[in-house]
Amino acid sequence: MSRYGKHTVSYLRINLENGLRRLSDPKNMLLLRGVAILHLTLTIKAATSSCPHLCSCSQDTVICTGQDLLRIPSRIPPDTVRLDLQENKISEIRKNDLKALRRLKILLVAFNILSIISKGTFSSRQLMDNQIHMIESGAFDNLIALERLRLNRNRLRTLPDKIFINNVNLHRLLVISRVMKPFYVFVE
User: Fold this and answer.
1) Does the model's pTM come out above 0.70?
2) What is the rounded CA–CA span in Å between residue 40 and residue 47?
3) What are 56's strand-pairing partners?
4) Considering Cα of 102, then 107, then 109, then 115, what sign does the dihedral take?
């Protein structure tokens, strides 16, 4: 071993011994434990709230635009506030697809091939440019805070009686049929 190699080995041995001595100090052990717990917590949070495949996530927003998705992706982070699913091939949104998203305020599903909205399925404000031909009675019952709803450019023929009876804050509603005789509704 060269002269420099011996010095390097000696230097590393001394630093290792000093480092181990420092770690045995109770204050440093407490700090090391804190760092380990923080690392573990962040690792677990990242693993449990991963972004769905083909989507991009940042803070409280999930964007899955134009990915030819056939259904709502699984594993959407539960703290999502804004979910953008526009320009896909989603034909149905099942009742449990959005159930875990308690903080969801904005759901964008325009330019899909949605055909039916079932009771209690979701709380979207903008459902335009789909193929919705039927809305079940009670579909919007849980949307007490709903203020605006756009259902234009769909295939609606009729709406159930009193469908918006529980939507006391609804002051703007736009409904225009795509194929059938158009009709407009504006509620002040």
Assistant:
1) no
2) 11
3) 63
4) positive
Query: How wide is the angle at C-alpha 125 spanned by C-alphas 119 and 131, nearest 5°?
Result: 65
Q: What structural domains does the chain harbor?
A: 3-48 (no CATH), 51-113 (3.80.10.10), 126-188 (3.80.10.10)
Please enumerate, as own/partner, the contacts of 78-81 that have beta carbons within 8 Å and a separation of 24 or more. 78/49, 78/102, 78/103, 79/49, 79/103, 80/104, 81/105, 81/106
Within the chain, residue ranges assigned H as helices are 3-23, 26-48
Give CA–CA dist 114/112, Å, rounded.
6
* pLDDT, tens digit, 9 for 90 and up, residues 148-169: 777 777 787 778 888 888 888 8
Identity of the amino acid at 161: D
Q: Which residues contact 56 (CB under 8 A, 6 or more apart)?
A: 62, 63
